[in-house]
Design a protein that fits this description.
heterodimer, A: mainly alpha, 2 domains, rod-shaped, B: 2 domains, two-stranded antiparallel ribbon
């Protein structure tokens, strides 16, 4: 047993055992209180962390699943109907050739027509040929966009 | 759908991947480490609680506490590093999955794009012939009337737009061709700049005027008069080309005050008017002196302080002088801090107005923000160690 003789005031000298026990019990109780407070504090923090973890985990899992699904859908869409494309290609080819030839002819004509002649008749001819060129050019652009469909 | 939208729609596959997939991959790469950093935080919490409990155990050695602390920190750091390594692994996995989609798109589209490219080349070459012919013709300096000028300007714009659209289409098909080639070879991107109208306008300006500065051409042809070439008509009538020429020299462009063709063309160009208005706003803001009223009130207050200290402060002359001087110094130090704040706000206003001009030029001339994605794979092991030792 420890020697507490020097640790306690004189008024306890006739009954030294009682104050020692009381003091030890008080210290033990304080420690236990501290430990309980620490543990409960830690448990509170851990449970808050656990809630946060489960929230983010659920979020991540959902997002992962959505992303994988999206990529799978894109993959399926990317595997376009090649047979349909092959069937439509000759028609598209014909349309391309027709529009291309028409555009070439119109361009030749326009190169001849465009000049510094600013008479009303000449300007009217230039305007008319430009309208035809623009229409044909837009048709080819339309065909090109049909050629490369998006997802 | 107009031609511009039609051409931009060729990028739909790439846009779908960039707008829907890549942001989610990046977000996931950030969220995964967050989970593990929460786990690590829990471990740290447990260690800290254990150490608190240990503090109440009298016989425990301090070396034991240190060991618990070190072991806890190692465990927490390992968990965090593991989280980052796992995120890197997942990031790579998703990039691989995206690569598979890109490969599939490329294999389906490459052949079709080659056909589109061929057609775009033919279209571009034929519109180039027309464009070259037009820019070389010369109109008389004074045209009959405004109706004639507006008809000529409309024709010039139609030829220019045709050429610009076809050049844009060709650039886009070339770009897609390169992207598909890279994708087929398991590479995420060709790193080529994505074509936009701004780029195309710069090429056209270069083709039209070569080494001459277009701003000089614009000023010369609007001031000197004489015959106007087709290129000059295009430059004055088009909304995009003149703004491209203003981008490095943001001064107000004043049209000639006579009744020449140049004047009519420039005055009826709305883009130039809007640009001039924005520049005028900025210049007016630059010329403002926002702190002059403060200086004036400072001088006025100083005079009052001097008068007050002479007539109302009791005592000998040097007491009056010291009190007056302290009051004036205090006043000017306060005013100094106000003026620096006002000057700062004034500079912010000027920068804002200057940015407005840049944004207007960029918007009219079709500048798009170039995508900047990090397609690089991350090594899970090096991520683990760099995170552990950071």
């Amino acid at each position: 047993m420890k020697n507490y003789n020097n640790s306690y005031p004189a008024e306890y000298a006739d009954n030294i055992e009682t104050p020692i026990v009381v003091e030890e019990v008080r210290q033990l109780s304080t420690r236990t209180d501290n430990i309980i407070a620490n543990v409960s504090n830690a448990l509170n923090n851990i449970s808050a962390n656990a809630v946060e973890i489960s929230r983010i985990s659920a979020d991540v899992q959902l997002q992962c699943a959505q992303l994988e699904h999206m990529l799978n859908c894109m993959m399926v869409k990317a595997q376009r109907d090649v047979t349909l494309y092959e069937k439509s290609l000759p028609i598209l080819d014909k349309q391309f050739n027709f529009c291309q030839q028409r555009l070439d002819k119109l361009m030749d004509k326009a190169v001849d027509l465009i000049s510094d002649d600013i008479s009303d008749a000449s300007l009217a001819r230039q305007e008319a040929i430009m309208t035809l060129i623009e229409t044909t050019n837009s048709s080819i652009n339309n065909l090109i966009s049909k050629l490369i469909p998006s997802l | 759908m107009n031609d511009e939208k039609l051409i931009i729609s060729l990028l739909d596959d790439i846009s779908a991947l960039e707008e829907q997939v890549i942001p989610q991959i990046n977000e996931l790469s950030q969220k995964l480490p967050e989970i593990y950093s929460n786990y690590a935080e829990t471990v740290r919490e447990l260690v800290s609680t254990t150490l608190d409990i240990c503090r109440d155990i009298p016989n425990m050695k301090s070396s034991t506490r240190l060991k618990i602390e070190i072991a806890g920190e190692i465990a927490a750091r390992s968990i965090e590093a593991f989280g980052k390594a796992k995120a890197a692994y997942k990031h790579n996995q998703l990039l691989d999955k995206m690569m598979a989609v890109k490969k599939m798109i490329a294999s389906e589209n490459r052949e079709r794009n080659a056909k589109a490219l061929e057609s775009a080349k033919i279209k571009f070459e034929s519109s180039r012939r027309l464009f070259n012919k037009y820019i070389s013709i010369n109109y008389p300096a004074k045209l009959k009337d405004n109706d004639q000028i507006s008809r000529i300007s409309a024709i010039s714009l139609r030829i220019l737009n045709l050429y610009r659209t076809n050049m844009f289409l060709l650039s886009m098909c070339n770009y897609l061709n390169e992207e598909y080639r890279y994708w087929s070879n398991d590479m995420q991107s060709s790193d080529l700049p994505r074509p936009d109208y701004f780029m195309i306008n710069q090429i056209i300006i270069q083709e039209m005027f070569g080494d001459k500065k277009p701003i000089d051409v614009l000023e010369r042809s609007s001031k000197i008069g004489g015959q106007l070439s087709g290129a000059e008509v295009m430059l004055m009538a088009d909304p995009q080309l003149p703004l491209i020429t203003f981008q490095n020299n943001r001064n107000r462009f004043t049209p000639p005050s006579d009744h020449s063709t140049s004047n009519t063309l420039i005055s009826s160009n709305e883009a130039i008017s809007n640009y001039n208005y924005l520049v005028q706003q900025r210049d007016a803001c630059q010329q403002e002196e926002p702190d002059s009223p403060i200086y004036a009130s400072g001088v006025f207050s100083s005079i009052i302080i001097i008068l007050l200290s002479i007539f109302y402060i009791p005592g000998v002359w040097w007491v009056k002088t010291i009190v007056g001087a302290i009051a004036i110094i205090w006043l000017w130090s306060r005013l100094g801090s106000y003026t620096s704040k006002i000057e700062e706000i004034h500079m912010q206003d000027i920068t804002y107005l200057d940015n407005e001009i840049s944004n207007y030029i960029a918007g009219v001339c079709g500048l798009i923000k170039q995508p900047n994605f990090d397609y690089n794979k991350k090594s899970a092991i090096s991520t683990f160690f760099s995170s552990f030792f950071s």
